[in-house]
Every structure is written in C-alpha cells, then in structure tokens.
Amino acid sequence: MVGLAWRVLERRLRRYLPPERVLPILGDLCGDHERYAREHGRVRARLWLIREMASLVAAYRRRAPLTRGPMDKLRSDLIHAWRALRARPGAALATAGVLSLGIGLVSSMFALADPYVTRALPFLDADRLVTLSVGTREVTDVPTIEGFRARTDLFAGLAAFDTGDAVSVGPGGETTLRLMQVSHEYFQVLGVAGPPEADWRARPQAAETPVVLTAAASRRLGELGRPGSLLRITDAAGAPTGRGLRVRDTFEPSFLFPAGSQPWDGVAPLPDDAVLVAVERSPAGLLTTRVRLSLIARLQPDVTLEQVAAALTTAPPGESPVMPSHGRVVTAYSVPESMTGRLRPLAAGALGAGVLVLLVCAANVANLLIARGAFRRRELATREALGATAADLGRLVLAEVGLLAVVGVIGGLGVAGAVLASLTQVIPAQYVVLGAPGVSMRGVAFAALAGGAVAAAGLLPATAAWRVRASALFGQAASGEPRRIRAARFSMTAAQTGVAVVLLVGAMLMARSYVNLLAQDPGYAGDVFAVGVRYPANQADWRGDVEATVTRLQQIDGVRSAGAFLGPLVENIGFGRAGPALFVDRQQVRGWINRVGPDFFQAARGRLTEGRLLTAADENRAAVVSQSFARACCEGRSVLGRRVSWTERSAERSFEIVGVVKDVFNVALDRAPTPAAFIPIDDMTRGTWVTYVLSARQPGLALAAAVDREILAVNPGAVVADGGLMRDRLMRSIHDRSFATLIVIFFGVAAVGVSAAGLVGVVGSVVAKRTREIAIRMAMGADRADVRRLVTREAVLASGLGAAVGLSAGGWLSKAMESFLYGVSPADPLSMVLAAAALMTIVIVAAWVPARRAMRLSPADALRVE
Amino acid sequence: MAPTGPLGEFEVVILMAVLHLGQAGGDAFGSAIRDEIERRSGRRVPRGSIYVTLDRLEEKGLLVSKLGDTTAGRGGRPKRIFRVTPGGKKAVKHSVAVVTRMHAGLEPILGDR
Fold this sequence. Notes:
The complex is a heterodimer.
Chain A: H1 2-16, H2 19-40, H3 42-61, H4 70-87, H5 89-117, E1 129-136, H6 145-149, E2 155-162, E3 166-169, E4 175-182, H7 185-190, H8 197-200, E5 208-213, H9 215-221, E6 230-234, E7 240-250, E8 266-269, H10 272-275, E9 279-281, E10 287-289, E11 294-299, H11 305-312, E12 328-334, H12 335-341, H13 344-375, H14 377-385, H15 390-426, H16 441-466, H17 483-518, E13 529-534, H18 542-554, E14 559-566, E15 582-584, E16 587-589, E17 592-596, H19 600-604, E18 608-611, E19 622-626, H20 627-634, E20 643-648, E21 651-661, E22 676-680, E23 689-696, H21 701-714, E24 719-720, E25 724-725, H22 726-733, H23 735-769, H24 771-779, H25 784-813, H26 829-855, H27 859-864
Parallel strand pairs in A: 4-8, 5-7, 17-22, 19-21
Antiparallel strand pairs in A: 1-11, 1-12, 2-4, 2-11, 3-4, 3-6, 5-8, 6-7, 9-10, 13-23, 13-24, 13-25, 14-23, 15-16, 15-20, 18-21, 19-22, 20-21
Chain B: H1 9-23, H2 30-41, H3 47-60, E1 63-70, E2 78-84, H4 86-103, H5 107-110
Antiparallel strand pairs in B: 1-2
C-alpha cells in the first residue's frame, strides 16, 4: 500500500516538475518518514506520511502542470492499466478469456448470418429476379421461350439456362470445368457485363465455344484462365477431341450464380435449339417435350410472383388454374427468397443465440470487474487522497477495461476463426451459396463493437464496486463488502445463470428432437442402395424401360434384389397437391397411392406386419397399405381383404388389400409419412421420376458405376443422379436440422461453460475477499461445512433464482423454436428439468472448487494475510 | 533571471534559513530548511509550501541549487542543496532594512521597550 502511495506521489509531482526536482523531494520525505517512524512507531508514521504527501500534492496542484499531451496521458494510463492487470493475472486472464469466448462465438455466428440476414444479394434490383419452372401434363400446350418473351407486360428481361455438363480440359484432361449453359440475355437479366451477343451464339459445329469463367476458376487455371486463352477439351481418356473453349471474359469475384448451390466454374452458350421449350415430333408420331429448361427473368416493376404464375398457367375450362389435370403450370420463385429464404431463420436464430451467449459474458465480465473493483478500493482511495480527480480515476478504470476488451476482441477473432474453420467441415452446402463464411472486415468491426458493448455493459453494474470511499483507506471491516456490491454481484450471477438456462433448454429440446428423429424406423434398411433417375417426359415405352432396368439391375453381380419406386424417394421433395380421394368400404381415407415396381419391398427390406407383399401377378388387382393407412381406415379391425378404390383419369380403380407394411419415409426423415397404399406400376402410370433401390452385398462405388451403366443401357436419354445408401439420404434429408442442432447445442454448452468459469471467479473472489472473516469464524469454532456454506451460499442462491427465471423464460422463448422441434413439445418438462439439473450440478461443482480452498485455510495463516 | 520584486515574509524566512544552515556548515536542503525554520521560529510549515517557495526563489535568481550525493535513509535519492546568491543576500538585507525602517518609531505603541 505504502509502495503504491510513493508511486502515485511521484507520478503526480512529475506532472509539475522535471524528474531531477522530484527525486530530492521524495528523498527528503523518505528520510523524514524514517525518522518519524523511529520516534512515533510505524502505524502513526503511515498516517503522517499520507498527510505529508497530500500537503505536497496540494501545494503543487495550484501550479500549472508541465505540458503533457493526450498521447502522454493515454500512454501512462495504459502502462498503469497493464501493471494493474499484471498484479492479478488470474482474474485478468479469466475476464479476457470470457470476453474472447463470447466475442468469438457471436462473431462467428455473425460471419455465418451476415450474408443472409443483413446484406442484399449482389444483383441489380435482386428483388425483381425470378426463376420460372414450367411443367406440362399434356403436349397440347407447350410454351416456347418466344411466348414468354412476348409477355413484356410481365418481364423486363428473360433468359434460359440449363445445367449443362462437366468438361475436361487441359493437355491431359486434368481439370474439370462445370459449365452452366445460358442464353445471351442471362447477362442482361442479372445486370452483369457479358460478351457481345454475336459472339455468344452457339454454333454446334464450331471448334471453339466461348465461355465466361468465374474469378475462382480463372485463378485455378492460371495462365489458361485469362481472357483470350483457349482450353482444349479432352475425352474421358485424356485425348484431345479437337474442340476447345475460348475464355471470353471472367466474372467479378463477387459474382454469384442466382440459382442452385452447385459450384459452377462458368457459363457457356445454350444451344439455340434448347432455347426453345421445344416440341419435337418423334418418328413414331408422338410428341416429345423438353420442359426441363429453366428460365430466369427480371420482372417489370410492380409485377408479383403470383401475377406471373396466374398469367402463364393455362387450365381447361372449368378447372382450377392452380393444378390443371392437363395444360401448363408455371411456378415462379423469387431468386433472393430461394437463395436465402430458408436459411434466414436459422441464421437469425444462430445470431440470436450468439447474442445470448454474449449477454452471459457481459454478466460474467461485470462480476469479474466487481471482484477487481472490490480489491482495488483501497488503491483508488489512496489515489484520490493524493489528489487524483474523478476524471483521473475514471480514465484509469476505462484504460484497464479497454485493455481487457482489446485483448478479448483479439482473442475473440481467433476463436471465431477456429469456430468457422471447424464449421466449414460440417456446414451444409446450402449455407455457402453466398460464399463460405470467414472473418471479414465487417466481422472485425462487429467483434470490436461486441467487445465495446460487453465491456461497457460489464462496467455499469461494477461501478458500485469501483466507487471510492475514504474509509477504504483504513483497513477493512470483518464483513468487508458494502451491500451494493453484493447486490450487484448477486444479480449478475442470477442473470447469467438465467440466460444460460434459456440456451440450455433450447439445446436440450433440440437434442431430444434430434434423438427422436434418429430413433425412427424409416420402414426400410439403411444399407439399401438407391438412385434417382429422370426419364424424358412422355416417352413411348416408359413402363417397359423401368421393368427392363429392374431385370438388368437384378443381374448385377452381388445384387440380392432390385426394385423401383415411382417418384423421388427421400429427396426432400414433397408434393404440394392432393392426390385422388381414396375410399375403403365407402369410407374416405386421407392418403396417397404410391406405385412400386416388382420386388420393391424385398429390395428395400421393408417390414411386412400383416398379410403378404406384392408379386408380379398383382397388377390391377392387389395393394399393400402402410400401418398408418390401416389405422386410419380400420382402427382395431383387420384391413386384409378390404378394397381400396379411387377415380383416376375418369376410370374407377379398386384394389384388394393383401398386406400391411411399416410406414415408409419417402420425403425426409422429419416428414412423418402420410398413410399410403402401394400398387404395382401399371399402364396408367405417368411420371418421369423413378427411384431404383437395390439390396446388395457390397453397396459401394463399383455398384454405383454398374447401376449407372445398366440404366443408361436401357435408355440413353435418362438422367441418372448420384446414387447412395438410404442411410445417407435420410441423414442428408435432415441436414438443416443437424446443423441447427449442432449450433444450438454448441451455444448451450458454451453458455454453461462461460457461466461455470464466471462462478469459479465469483466464489474465488468471495473467498479471497473474506479470508479474514473466514479465519475469524474458524478461530471461533466454525467447522468446514459452515465455511463451505458461507462462501457458496450466495452463488448457489443466485444461480437457483436465475435458473428458475431462466426456466420460465426458456419455456416461453422455446415456442419460437417449435418449427425446429420434432416429437417434442416446446414446453417439454423433461428437457426443462434436465437443463435445470445440469446447470445446478455445474454451479455446485464450480462453486465447490474455490470453496475447497477456503475450507482448507488454517485460521493462523488466514489472519496473517492482512 | 526573473525580475526581483519585493519579497514576501515567508520568502525572507526561507532565505535566512538557508543562510543560517550555510553559516553552520550544514547542507541546506528541503527537510533541513524546514527543520531550521521550526527550530528558530517555533512554526511548523507545510512541506509543500517549502518546496514551492524554494522553486520560486530559484526562479527569481535569489537561490541556486545543485544535486548532492545520495545518502542512506533517503531511499537512494539525492539531496538538492541550496545556496543564497549575492542577489539573494541583497534582497534579504533590503527586506530587513525596510522592516527596520518601518518599525522605527513604533516601539511605544508595540510596547517593545
């Protein structure tokens, strides 16, 4: 204490005098103090010294200080702050660590959410961009792109694009480029610079195709990626084909493809014949349409998506234009909405969770600052006695907190970098359509802002502890702490526990919901291999192709059985429309008709619960139904032998139910299967999408290649998607949820971790502050249990109160999570109890660690501390 | 050198204390000057006033100072030893003469005799 007083005095005098004048004054005082102490004793000498020092400072204060610029002041404040932090390194590290963690977490979530929540897409008037999907049931009303272009009342610009192909380029075919095929208007619609129209006209016979590459692809290709260079196209074996790609231009680095999350490398011209939504007449006289072409358009100002869809959809007289049984359906999707719409809630939620963690940190920082302030009350009182003004003390405190905040921000950016690097490994593809998240300049600015806010929020409640009182100069009373400080600490502890409980409740609900998802029986085996195939629409012998393909698949070496399912299977694609009304014994049953090829259930290893499976002889005769269908129609009675009937294309259909299977998850693992009746593929079957399923000994890459080969051998026009195991498909179908669960659990754990660290600090500071009191109590006969109660009571009471408030707030807030939950109510009592129990356990353990130190104190040692 | 105006009483007291200490062969530094004043006048003056006045007198050119050696018991800090300049001596003489002249004739009223 006296040492500090000397330093403060020296610093004060140096404001008014050069150092060579200051030292003799201090020397005189030192000598006189020694003499006084010899004559009057140390205790009186201490008071005498403070009085003499005050007299010195008071005398000089009336003089003009030596010129001292703001930078000098800042420098000396920072040096003092640094010394003060170094004096109690544990507490300083704890505060900086808590700040780093909080700032790091919220900054990483900001980096993730920023593009989706706060920033506009990098397109001119992005709100007016739409993609159009055109579907036709019949060939009588096939639109052409000219037809769309003619609607200048709706569109200011319209372009066609197609997914195109991957091409191998380079001397040995070592580089693969994925090129999107686009019509020339593409550039104009997006509002980006493009090559002249004449250059972009694709000439199928030409040896050179113009391309515009993305900045990333151009960088990857090096010299070859520069505008003007020629990329030679090679075949699969790496031999030159004699054709090449001429790089016309490169996109700006900020360019994004407005549709799809595919990592395209650039664009090439769309062949003119494909620009038509073409109608072709096959040799057999059947009409064939190519309707898979995608269109992107810029709407005229004030035109809405609904107006476009309504204006372009055609329906026969008397039928609803929403889904005509034949005719054309045009669906318009907003580009910004399809790129960011489904991610925005999760991004905003993650950012919100980050802010909650930051709140926990702020409460924690406040507590740690309260502890620091309590320890430094005497120091500050001394400074004030020696003439420091309120502004001086304020600056000193601000410098100290500011220094902590700077360390916290730097550490936080490191934490954010690490979090983002690990997130990149697990992030679903749709979350990187606007680029992989990273720490940008905006991120740094956000982190600095967060650091400032947390430090300021932490400082406010701590002011009580830092308020200077002259009484602090003279020893400390046994109780040691003013009530205001205790109250501030109590409320901060309660607040941070409350927020941590809210996050923990969220984490528990998400975890339970995820466990529910994974525990479901999807109705087939996980190691079944499946592959989706799109056939050209309205092809002549569609059914024959499917049956021939199944036969060929069954003959692949190692395949036990193969089957077909009409439509997408676990592709996260649902049907927006209702199917025909189904009846069992004249009673209507809500459900679907699913068509399956021979041996589907055998190949998928579906679970039969009653009756038998379908055979090849069951066409137009028999159906099996799912358990939920059976329950819906005949609760408690046997469904076997009853007939399911409906009207399809004006024909009455009626099938005998011969078996019941477990429900089949056919959309996604989080979309409860609708009651379904399964019938064999028949001549009334329409559709272009088939999923083949195979049960095989070794479902690996070799099998995938063989399956591709057999499908294309039957129909070379088929488009075969990547095949894979049903287990992987199921997991992919809930990728969004997996990611959301990961994020929420991550934040729950982080909040609890920060809370626990803060509690260790708080109880530790209580122990340090009350060491003398503890010693006196122990000397008076208190036992260890009394001491433990004394130091942990406050933390446990505050946490208990916080947990109670947090639980009610969590129950209320979790309603917002309802859409993310599966099989769990937002007010799930088990999650609430588990969250509270987990947190209270951690609180007790966190309080126990420093309490043990207090319990081990020996009264004699403790009294010697002062 | 700053122009020397009329000296204040405390300034004269300090100059005289420095002269006394010099005459006795001791070092005239802050604490010693303060003790000397207390010993001779019975008046304890605030420490701060001593140093501020010493600085002012040096600024007026009535005192000069030099740093002495470090001595034990001072935390290793040097003394600043003062000496009265000829101008200082003249100023003291002048001040005393003024006081003497002003005092002359007041003895009956002040009850000095």
